[in-house]
Records
---
Amino acid sequence: MPSKKFSPPLSDVVPERDSRVVRCYAERVKGLGLSDRMTRSLAGTAAHIAVWLSLNGQGLGTFDIRLLDRFMRHACRCPGWKLEGRRLGPQNRWSAVRFLRHLLETGHAEAPPEVEAGGLLVAQFLDTLKERGYARSTIQWTGNLCRHFIVWLHLSGIRLAAADEPVRRRFLAHDCACAHPGFIDSPTGFAGSDSSGSRLRLFAAFLADQAVIPAPEVPQPGAERSGHLDAFLLWLRRHRGLRDATIELYERYIRTLLPALGDDPGAYDAARVRTAILDRLEVASRNQAANEASAFRMYLRFLGASGLCRPELVHAVPTIPGLRGASLPRHVGRNDIERMIATCDVTTPVGVRDRAALLLLARLALRAGDVAGLHLDDIDWDRAVIRVSGKSRRGAKLPLPQDVGDALRDYILEARPRSDERKVFLRSLAPHRPLARQSIGSSIVSRAIRRAGIRGAGPASSHLFRHSAATNLLRDGAPLEAIGALLRHNSPDTTAIYARVDVRMLRELAQPWPFEGEA
């Protein structure tokens, strides 16, 4: 609702000092060359604010974003504005923010100390992002978000020191009407997003480093955990040497079954165990149910050995039948592998990094986790070997081929971002965190397949290189024992799956199919 023209003289309601400020502002607006309607709206809103403040015992020197918010929400019965108790509209908010900017610039009002202090912290935070190599557009967007957060805290009456995770979630979900000259000039319609949440967590980590907010409590590695499941997960790490990613899978599988079984292992019986797992077949895939059954079987063994349940309950876990080896390992020929490697643009840092990662996959048949987990200290340049840990924590040393070593050297010395991180492969964009295992297959291998124009390779996966290396070696006459040693298989049965892809040898063993009428 646009403001009505104020008919009585300002001096009848507003103190002379404030009325003089409003008149000066009106003259300044007239000199901007705006339309008559816009000029009347800006001047009228300024006069309205002065009247409303005076009626509430305030002066223009006290006007800030909190009073602006109250002004916008008041049911207007101010003399000279016949709004009949209605609230003001969005146009009036824009005009009010513009008038507040004028008051701040001319020294007739002051920014709240909390907002000024928060703005200084935001500026320091953006400096750290610049030092860490963030893109200019990302820094600008993050700065707007953090300043928005500071303004919202002030409008909500929340101290910055109390900005914990629940407060940040409230901010990401609020219906935005925030505005502050010099911070955010107009409401943004902000409703929160995953990227906003991650940037805000980054700002919160900076505030914790500056001791502005309490640092979140992080459990110490190796500390004793409470609960039977937590004790089991700790046992997997300490005594079975499993990786964190594998332990997380075990936890997820077991927690899926616990609601049907309860938290008291002493109350478990064979019927409950069997029913809980078989019920999963109605809502989950066969492979998912088989994985959950296998994880729970190991959990029951741990509980039985600890005296928390009857040991024989392990036999109550049903075996979910599956078709082992129902599908052949997907693979491509050597020429296709070399073509994928050759498509990397070595004139860019990303291309240099991707080429080094693909060569590790192709020449040494590494898993994605091996490549993502490779540390700078794992490379022995003098002896030309690298150390990988595989699926477990048992390390193995592998020879470093010349072309792989050259590619790693070029990446580390020329293309790798400057970072204190000890892992070899890092994100090319800030923050320069280590590459995730999933990024090797879903990003690097996927791009290589697409650039090389290879069809029929199946879903993009780093295992395409591993399967191809084993299959091509087998076709060249390499024995399965040697292939198993390269792939670091613990069991010959695992390597035996590649025998089924040697079509030429299978043709020699296959018997002709008898047709009707033949003896």
---
Amino acid sequence: MLRTFTKEPTTGGAVLALVFWWESLAPSLLPRAWVIQAAVSAICSAVGYAIGTLAGRLVRAAIRRSERRIPGRSMKHLRLGLAALAGVAVVAGSLRWLGTQNDQRDLVDMDHLGSTAVIPMLVVTVILTLMLVTFGRLIGGLVRALDRWNRRHLPRAVAQPLTVALILVVGVLLLRDVAFSQFTSWANTTFGAFDTGTHDGVSAPEETTASGGPGSLVEWDNLGYQGRNFVSAATTTADLERFWGSDADLERPVRAYAGLRSADSAEERAELAVNDLERAGGFEREVLVVATSTGTGWIDPDASESIEQIYRGDTAIVSMQYSFLPSWISFITDLDKASEAGTELFNEVYERWSVLPADDRPKLLVFGLSLGSFGAEAAFVGPDAQTSLTNMALRTDGALLVGAANANPILRQITEERDAGSPSWAPVFDDGRIVRFATRDPNQPVTVRTWDVPRVLYFQHPTDPVTYWGLDWLWSPPEWMDDPRGQGVTSDGRWFPFVTWTQGVFDLMAGFSAPPGFGHDYRLDYVDAWTQVSPPDGWTDADTDRLELFLFDEP
């Protein structure tokens, strides 16, 4: 068994490890820090080594069956040549990586990496690769030992299939019943405890217009961590006056919310949230937004403040919590809960709103960010894009879906059924009659026809991996690589099996820390997005510029 860890690398494994390492240096949707690059390269190199080792064994077996042999001297020369090639490749690849990364950083307004980043990137790559290869050899040694035992005690026709079956069963049990079970238990315990806390400086509202405040039907302690942040952060009268002036006709915004602990089921939470919305006067406002939260129950404060400022506070936003897990965990464990929450909440609001006089009820808007957009779509999904969008248009006065996930059913329908010639990062459907896409890219295709009301707007950055990453990257090139590419997307990115998919996994992590206007950071886009969907009477582009300056460029 010791020889399993100390034997020299196989030739085939070393060759493919080098190829996979070289391909891992290519840029993807977002720039990578040196430590992230080391992790990506180590994983890709280890997988390349495993594939190369297996392929080498198959080649050697074929050679043995043909009763041929490769001279030892030839193999020695081959290995020396490969070692020299590897040395050149490491130098050239490192310089290439630094150059393409800094070129990509220019595209997304990030600082350059220094040349010293190459050394720790290479060192950590080697260490991590050795660890992964060693672990792989351990697993491989155990598998071979099991196969040898089976072949000694069972007929060959039974032994190998049994080995494969046992490996599959043990692998599934370890992943599902051990790793996944332990992971979900840890996540529920950790984030469940966090959800009971309150951010420093956050206190219960003193106004009757917010859940958790005086007269509220929802208890402050049951709102959850993000729910308490949401209801306590409504735009203040002072903030409204700073933008609109003290003489303006202003309202205190309504924010209604039900936490996960506020009621036992999604249906009951939705009813409670809407009851509190009604109590606070939410159905008497000019605009009512049904917002589906992300996994933790979070509503982007920039989205909320933008719509409240645009409509001078004469707004109501209602939401509810369906999980206390971060979106990336909720996507794995609570995806159905997001759909259920979005459907229950919207249907409850719509039932109350639809019986109000048509000339005396608020504009009904739908909002969702990231996993929240997945839940927000749920109430409208039909068999095809046209049906889904018609459902939205018939039951709302507009919808804003931001940073939508690749798994979003309506987004996928639109993208797959888009008009010929439009790119996947800015699809045009039905010539933009109901739905349009905004990307911040001044060169995206322009739709010339009139945009009907109600309007559906998807706002997505071409560099946002949340919108584009999918399992199919493993075996086929992603559509964001098609020409033309969107704003901020490097022209140097290319597809390679497994490698591009791995890069995408790490892009998902980097997307949340990208500069505003790129990746998954949409804080700069909400004023423009809201006013495209449902602008107040008399609103101008100059008003948009002035509010964006007020919200995001003030000291």
---
Amino acid sequence: MTISQQVAVTRHTAAERETRCSPSRNILIRLLLAILLAVQGWNAAAQQNPGTEFYSNPVIPGDVPDPTIIRVGDKYYAAGTTSDFAPHYPVYESTDLINWNQIGSIFNDRPEWTSDSFWAPEFYYRDGTFYVYYTAKRKGDRISCIGVATTRNIHEGFTDHGIIVEWGNEAIDAYIFQDDDGKTYIFWKAYGLDPSRPIEILGAELSADLLSISGEHFTLTDHSKGWKGSGDEGQVILKRNGMYYMLYSIGGCCDNRCDYRVMVSRSENLKDGWEQLPDPILQGGGDWVCSGHGSLVTTPDVRYFYLYHAYNRTDFEYTGRQGLLDELVWNEATGWPYFKHGNTPSASAPVPIPGTRQVRKMVYADDFRNDKNRKLWQWDINKARPGITMKGGKFRLSSEEKGRVFTGISPKSGNYTFEVSIQRKDQLEKGICVYGNRRNMLYLTLRENTLTLVSVKNGNEEIVASREIKAKYPVTLKLQATNGRYYQFFYTEKGSGQTSLEWQGTSTFDGNFLPQWGVAMRTGLIFNNPGNQTAEFSAVRMETKFNDK
């Protein structure tokens, strides 16, 4: 008897017995039916996709909002928002769209005209040159403008060319599009901070060198036509079969009240006549919420993939907006695009490049014999830039500024452990930290024989727990994060087992105050600098648990 026949018989007998069976028997029968139906579905899927490999979202885990993506030859490159963490805009490289390695950053040093809020980089490539159009606040008035930078070697960082778009109180979210006639345009979000008029997505032609605007601006949004949503941003422009399409995001983007989603509009003319598809083509659902602000890339076989961000429903702003991937296809009858696997983010989908397999990097461990992982470590640009060296088995952290000095990395999930080894006793207070910004952090330090757990909320410092230990060095300090929000702290002395740090009957500490608007935390190393001092750490290890399905 086939599975289909078994299911049919089961349905028939279950219907006959429904009125006679006990509640527990009914439950068993329904459970059996559900299992058989599931097996039937799995069997059908296997028959339709024999040998198909699947990937899981996110493809770039951790905090990577507003991602951009391009393909150059057989390589793909991506980057995302870093806000007030530096180096600015980590750059990722891939050959298959599902396994990404960080190869550096767009800027190791802050461009001269900028102050803070480094958002929404957008890559473009032409004739051997990489361009990036990025948003930052300008020194002095802190108005968001769009800058442009270039490089011939993306592994070596970019050279800045200054501001290309300044527009009233705000210009953000650049996108570059070349039309069939060879003309190239820049598009951006405008009027986001102007209460007297609605937000618009504007465009203008670029100069031949792509470093300045040469044409008059025009608008691609028209809410007078009854368009749904507000806050249009994060646009992508493409042309297919003579029709222009614009994917863009609406709604709130950046905290746990968000309702971000992706809309699409189209027109036969780039500069006017745009009509909106009323319903979003991508929104939150399943394990992911507030999907949006992405960029499209085509594979060599001309398939479209959208790299975008979304919050994990459980880890949310504690881990940040992570990098997800889904395929965009077209309804040839209507001409409208849609996402192949539904209008919510895929938990998993077939790999974009046949013959490839996704590999999750669960463990980051570094003994600091060299500085190959230096590019992963970030710091707060609102503090003095720390000195960081990795050499000879030591991580040395210093600063010209007195007080707390921090550097850290972006956790890839809300469930992880982070630990560091401290080899020798000294007078410096140093340890591990979960860092929201300079006014919000939770850290555990060791100074000689004293362990201290400190909470800093809105700049107010509180000692949460303190303990004297024998301090048989080396001492390992460790934290364990659950859902990105809850933390347990441990220490291990030489020759002894792991001990949990408790306070007033609890060993779990709530970090609900740590995330800042639109910015997830970093986890790393900290010390209190009395002035002209250097803290030494020996080895770190971060182990991540992914919830792939």
---
Amino acid sequence: MKQISTNARFFVFGLMAMLAMVGAHAKTFKWTSASDIPTWDIHSQNNALANGIHASVYESLVYYNSRTFKAEPMLATAWAEVSPTQLRITLRSGVKFHDGSAFTADDAVFSLQRAMAPTSNFTPYIQGFDRIVKVDGNTIDIFTKGPNPVLLNQLTELRMMSKTWAEKNNSVAPKDIKTKDENFAHRNTNGTGPFMLKEWVQDQKMVLVRNPNWWGKADTNVSEVVYTPVKATATRMAALLSGEVDFVLDPSPQDLPRLRQDGALKVVDGVENRTIFFGMDQHRDELVGSNVKGKNPLKDVRVRMALYQSIDTNAISRVTLRGLGQPTGALVAPQVAGWSDSVHRRHPYDAAAAQKLLADAGYGEGFEVDFACPNNRYINDEAICQAVAAMWARIGVKAKLRTQPLSTYFPMIQRYEASIYMLGWGVPTFDALYSLQSLVRTVGPGGDGNYNVGRYSNPKMDQIVDRAKTETDPLIRKRLLTEALELQNTDVAHIPLHNQIIPWAMKKNIEVVHRADNRLDMRLVKVN
């Protein structure tokens, strides 16, 4: 179904002004990666690719500077702490949504409350929020349940939606990603950002055009952005080599040497703020699809450690990733507060020790287990899972691998339908609490355990994480975060694999700013 209705009207509304603005210097930027975004509802699914694309159309109160990664004003111009639990935010005047209506305090209050809704997947970003209050037409107050040392960082991912538009179009609540039900905001947009959505045919094509009435000043000569998701790696690379696209977000590791030597192309590298790991169902009393009946092997830490120690991450980094992965024992990347060398140190690869652990746990003959992975989300994700399945087979664990595209994979694991699953977790707040609360805190209200889909639970972990939520002393806070990361390693709550190293491949005439969160800032893209 093509994207028409409101987006088409906004496009026509601004077309003549846009043409006058860009004139003869108008440029089209064409790019691709393996998957499409799952929705245009900005509070529905916390997906890194979607969050980056959404940021071109919908804006947050503050946003990270792409070069410094410091939070800077966006739809907010100032903020001040009234008390340790009250932050006053002054909103930017004169901002218009794409339909021409004014951005006001009512929209800001509505948007933050919408992110707190039961169907929102953005609850990690509203951790600690108590209530949002309108002070006047240009000011809001955020009240928190206790001191929140990362509140400003959280606001970078909470984008603003028009209250009137949402009410008019039956989109007051975010789309529930666990169902196939759609609201109007799933396929239609009305942001304040530098680009407007002109067309979206899911899994086929997306077209953005410049917003001629944007309040800011973009350092770009791009008037149109065309995004084409292409699952097949060879097809994406062929499109770049032939000139059909200008930029590939996820080039194949094996093609990088050739791309670096091509005089018409260039590769820009950077370490991503993302860790790839496996999660395990530690909740069910009997695993679905396993030949072990009446109990769950994954509840035994010896089994989890055996799975961990039978994975040769160095071989995966060298062969499968071609160097685009930094093996790690930590659940977060080095840029994140709470990381330490000791947390980063992996348990040794030792297949013999892994077999002994299985035998000690009563599974000397091995067992069968369901194993789910995405096939178009992370660098060589499917190939990594195939390699790991082969490594587990050597110790007698028969992992029945199944792979799915991003759009169906994430709702599936959030319905708790996978026994072992792959997940990659970036940390937009650059603070380990974001990962700890989402991944190892017992599942509960207020964002606790929202991606703890293995349903690991440890009261000691909960206590540490809950203390970190309100601790403002930097030294105490870092100690708490590190302690929680160490406990995750001891419990083998997850099996960390590697931190991704991200290369971007593009034509020589393309200028971009590489970000640690692997997103393109369209305000800074240039086609020379």
